[in-house]
Amino acid sequence: MTSSPLRFNHIDDLPHIFGALTIVGEAQIEKEKYILRHKAEGLSASVGTEPKTTNVSPNKPPQLYTNKEVKAAYQNNNWAKIKEIEDKAQKGLQPVMENIKNLGERAWAKVKSSKGDEFYMSWTQDALIWSFTESMVAATEAAKAENPNTAFQSTIQVGQYVKGVSILGVHSYNLDTPHILGYSVAAYLVARVLSSTIADGLGFLVVNFAIRLTQVAVELGLESFSFVVSPGLLASLASTLVFVIVFITVMYIFNWLNRLFTLKVQVFNWDKDNDWKLFKHSKDNAVNPGRANDFGALDYTIDKMGTSNSTILPPDFNPITTLDSICYYGVLIYQNEQTFMEGCDIAIQTICGNNPTEGFTIGVSVPWGSSNKIAIQNASLDPGYFLKHAHWTSEPKTLSIDYHGKTITTTIDYLVSAPDDLYNVNVHIGKNE
Question: Which residue ranges traverse the bilayer (predicted)?
Fold first, then answer.
């Protein structure tokens, strides 16, 4: 049996995923309409007028929806099954990502749900990515006090779905603006910026996110708009953008710098009771994508396990009825900075809630010329201290601790000679809840 030829943004593929959606038009055509609308609404800045700068920030960390079979594979550290899942996900999603990388805004189409919601999507028969405005409300008094330019606050969701492996990933951004926008305009802004981030791969610079968002706004005739990311959120934003580029696969990892060793650390929060925070990390000869390591602590919250009703998905999204296992998730990428006969070591301090004294600490050592090692301790420790004093072990490849009745595990897939020198480390919080 021969497979159907790959096609992009075809109307006949919409019912397979979204049911009653219709195609409104191509993104580049919609852009021209936005320019005319914004000019008529007087949103262009007058000559000599300073733009009104507002904030953009990550809203929620990535959230994974999947089924019981996939959940069990990850929780049980079934690396053979995990590799099979990731290979299928890569095969399904990479054509969509490559199309966005190559075509930019021309890879996106505006679609409309049966309820009238308009948003942007790029898809094939097997996978898709979307940008959807969940909400847009008048700014709170607290937000206006923090930044008087803020008049409205929007939440824009980005989703990635692979049909063949039943995995959906969603995350979202907060976008503050000095004027109200159309819902599809906000979705377009984020889609365009993600297009350039995807094109950069893991060589992206996190500081470019707000710069590019401002540039796209100006292209749309929103010349009075300017965006900035708080320095304290740059590391968190970088981790979120890594998820967009990598998803659960190895997508674009090998388009990054020509390093020797790569660590992909995935942290799954299955805990139904507690949020957890990737608080601080320490590195020896390791570098992160986006140069996020230039901006201090991680400070990256992974929310407690959710329910199928905890996230607003675009209307008419059918697969949600079969995806019943939901957890928030974080992914961190590390590579060795100096490559000549040098490996790399990392340690991550993870805290429960916002209490820096409660939590656990993990470490991963990928040395030159000998077996990899991992470590975990049932204590929230300074990661720099932990790197020097951890109880490192190569066997077993999975370590567990008990934190107030909750099982926490860390595991590594290879001790030596991983394919492409990519080593995967999975951390599960509240395993089997």
Answer: 231-254
Distance CA 334, CA 350 (A): 17
Q: For residue 83, what are the contacts with CB-CB under 8 A and spacing of at least 6?
A: none
Both 273 and 199 in a single domain? Answer: no
pLDDT tens by residue, 330-377: 999 998 888 777 889 999 999 999 999 999 999 999 998 899 999 999
- Cis-peptide into 396, omega within 30 deg: yes
Strand positions, DSSP E, 243-324: 262-269, 276-284, 286-287, 300-302
Looking at 193, 213, 246, the residue that finishes a domain is 246
Task: Compute CA 263 distance to the chain's CA centroid, rounded to the nearest angstrom.
Answer: 17
List, in sequence order, the alpha helices (H) in 104-161: 141-146
The two tokens of residue 117 are 């919601």
Domain containing residue 358: 253-429
Which of 54, 258, 17 lies closest to 160 in space, CA to CA?
Answer: 17
Beta strands in 193-240 (DSSP E): 225-228
Closest CA to 81 of 1, 168, 167: 167
pTM of the model: 0.92
Look at residue 257 in the predicted model and tell me its pLDDT. 58
Return the number of other C-beta atoms located less than 10 Å from residue 20's C-beta: 13
* 182 shares its domain with 330: no
Q: Which of 186, 219, 246 is the last residue of a domain?
A: 246
Sequential DSSP letters for 328-397: EEEEEEEEESS-TT--EEEEEEEEETTEEEEEEEEEEEE-TTS--EEEEESS---HHHHHHH---BSSSS
| Domain containing residue 261: CATH number | 2.60.270.50
Same domain? 223 vs 262: no
The SS3 of residue 67 is: coil
CA distance 179 to 262: 43
Q: Say if residue 275 is in the same domain as residue 412.
A: yes
For the record, the structure tokens of 355 come out as: 């209490």
Helix and strand tally (H, E) in the chain? 9, 19
Gyration radius (Cα) of the chain, Å: 22
Alpha-carbon distance values, 168 to 22, 171, 325 (Å):
21, 10, 10
Based on the structure, what is the number of domains in the chain? Answer: 2
Q: Where are the beta strands (DSSP E) in 180-322?
A: 225-228, 262-269, 276-284, 286-287, 300-302
**Helix boundaries (H) for 41-140:** 68-75, 79-103
For 184-207, the pLDDT digits (tens) are 999 999 999 999 999 998 889 999
